[in-house]
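Human:
If only I could read backbone structure tokens as easily as an amino acid sequence. I am handing you a single protein, as its sequence and its fold in token form. I hope you can help me see how the letters and the tokens relate. Thank you; the sequence and its tokens follow:
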Amino acid sequence: MKKILMLAGALIISAVSFADLESTIKNHYSNKTIDLTVVSKPKQEVKSSGAASTAVRDQIISFAQTKLGSPYVWGATGPNTFDCSGFVGYVFKKAANVSLPRVSSSQATFKPRISSMNMTKGDLVFFETTGKGRISHVGIYMGNRQFIHASSGSRRVTVSSLDSNFYNKTFRWAINPFS
């Protein structure tokens, strides 16, 4: 009987303590907003210096090449048809879990510019192709002065040279999307 009374007393004390704790928590947080933002991890680790590993950059190029020949459709973001910025955004999201701005003019300004002498495969290359004084085309640098892009001219995803007459004249800058 003594054990039962002690157990009952302990339960009552616990219940009162829990009620006080619950009341304190409710009073403290009743008018506060709690941010429960979920952050996903990238498929590959990106070095803290802002530079992506060679493996991540190779993965981006390899995945982009699987889309060679896919039709160009203005405004398309994949998985089977693309415009230039839709192609770049799709490739980076699928191959490296990196989200980019939707349009080329925004993609061109969301990271600091780098010179063509400092480009690395996986960097984004930007062009002013319309003569209107703004960025209007984007591709992914593959190394050796080559880039892969969804071309409105060839109406498909293709590889072009930065040294071709057209792209040499219209190239403006590159960015490292991992910086």
Q: What stands out?
A: Residues 89 and 100 are 6 Å apart (CA to CA). The two ends are 72 Å apart (CA to CA). The domain at 54-175 is CATH 3.90.1720.10 (endopeptidase fold (from Nostoc punctiforme)).
